[in-house]
Design brief:
about 30% helix, single chain, alpha+beta, five-stranded mixed sheet, globular, about 25% strand
């Protein structure tokens, strides 16, 4: 078990099987030592978190949705690293998208759910640049989607 998975286990988290694409794209692309991971939605075995943040979904639930996205990103990282998360050198950037109601302004706080998880899992190497954007709709009605760029060895 990698050090990252040990940290996740200590947090009470286990990684799911990586989610397959739902359209014409691949889950990740490796270019040199960078891996670009396609957006991961707030999906889990129970169906995930869907709905508009600030309307059907509150801030704390939305942060949990972003954390789910982070878990799904780490599952894709593991696949990109052939099962060894210790090959992740650095989380370079996260792009967070929140399906937000017209009056919901706490977009950055929602995406912190994924950002915090990266630091908990990877330590200093989990600190990253980031975008946090409110959008009208996300695929399949999910509340949050997050993509990533990571450096691997």
């Amino acid at each position: 078990m990698s050090k990252v998975e040990e940290r996740l286990s200590a947090l009470g988290l286990s990684l799911p099987q990586p989610n397959p694409p739902v359209a014409n794209y691949v889950p990740f692309v490796r270019a040199g030592d960078l891996v670009h991971i396609s957006g991961q939605v707030s999906l889990d075995a129970g169906g995930g978190i869907r709905g508009t943040v600030g309307e059907e979904i509150d801030l704390e639930t939305a942060k949990a949705a972003a954390r789910l996205c982070g878990i799904n990103l780490i599952a894709q990282m593991k696949a990109a690293c052939e099962g060894d998360l210790d090959r992740v050198v650095r989380v370079i950037k996260l792009g967070g998208f929140v399906q937000a109601g017209a009056s919901f302004l706490e977009i950055p706080q929602v995406v912190n759910g994924a950002s915090d998880l990266m630091v908990e899992a990877f330590g200093e190497a989990g600190k990253h640049a980031r975008s946090a954007v409110g959008v009208y709709r996300l695929p399949l009605g999910f509340s949050v989607e997050v993509d990533a760029v990571v450096q691997v060895r």
